[in-house]
Specification:
Number of strands: 7
Number of helices: 4
Shape: globular
CATH architecture: 3-Layer(aba) Sandwich
Order of helices and strands: EEEEHEHHEHE
Distance between the termini: 23 Å
Radius of gyration: 17 Å
């Protein structure tokens, strides 16, 4: 299984487990360094079974283009795991390098398309979309948190999304 740690930073995944670590910064143990805003990425088509973006997508200016590139380098049915701060949490705004802010609907539009786009082609299927609450709210049932999050910030702090790359002939 070939895995991509996209935007690894200093969290290097083991090569012995099939990981390739890429980052915008070139430093020790990074397998490949390149600018994530220049397309196409210097990675082969249909080469990865699994891609991890852990707190990366919110830093990139054009999430649609990034996801299109990740789709290109993924094998059919490859899994992409995306972790981002929730749009109205302290963590989303504490880092001034964040360019995008995400909630659940943003991911539906990003990955499965806008319902008002008649020429839409789905490149991804959302497998799971988990809302991670702040530790103090983990005991409260999610339906209650879903109401509270509309009025209060810092209820949901992270979105953890798992999606599958849909290639031709699978749609």
């Amino acid at each position: 299984m070939k895995r991509l740690n996209f935007g690894c930073g200093d969290i290097i995944k083991p090569k012995s487990e099939g990981w390739i670590n890429v980052d915008i910064q070139d430093h020790k143990d990074v397998d490949k360094s390149f600018d994530f805003s220049e397309y196409p990425y210097p990675l082969e088509d249909n080469s990865f079974d699994y891609v991890l973006l852990d707190n990366v997508l919110e830093h990139l200016e054009y999430p649609h283009k990034v996801m299109k590139e990740l789709w290109r380098i993924c094998k059919p049915n490859a899994i992409i795991k995306i972790i981002v701060p929730y749009y109205n949490t302290y963590y989303a705004y504490a880092d001034i390098t964040h360019k995008n802010f995400f909630n659940e609907l943003a991911f539906v539009h990003l990955l499965e398309g806008n319902t008002y786009d008649l020429n839409h082609k789905s490149y991804f299927e959302i497998v799971s979309l988990k809302k991670i609450p702040q530790r103090f709210f983990k005991i409260i049932p999610m339906p209650i948190l879903d109401v509270l999050k509309r009025f209060l910030s810092n209820i949901i702090v992270t979105l953890d999304v798992t999606t599958k790359a849909i290639k031709e002939g699978e749609q």
